[in-house]
Design brief:
Elements: H1 5-41, H2 44-63, H3 69-88
């Protein structure tokens, strides 16, 4: 347990940030899941709509340090490729 005043404050801050980060991470996962479901169903328009929601969420999560910057970019790129592949079919 934290003993000093500064350690107690740090513990409070960490707890507060953890709740916020969990919320943001869940929002990103939900947005990506919507794209995955649309891709599985083969619904390009729904996938594009979900991508418009998911891309900013992923990039924002990367800016906030919740997801690594390169991981977020890679995820966006791979999802965009899969959506583009739907167009060709």
């Amino acid at each position: 347990m934290a003993n000093t005043k500064s350690a107690k404050k740090a513990a409070r801050q960490i707890a507060r940030r953890t709740v916020i980060n969990k919320s943001r991470r869940a929002r990103v996962r939900s947005a990506v899941r919507k794209i995955e479901e649309a891709l599985t169903a083969g619904d390009r328009s729904r996938a594009l709509a979900a991508m418009a929601e998911a891309e900013p969420a992923l990039i924002r999560a990367a800016q906030k340090g919740i997801v690594h910057r390169n991981a977020a970019r890679r995820k966006v790129s791979r999802l965009a490729q899969r959506i583009a592949k739907l167009e060709k079919k």
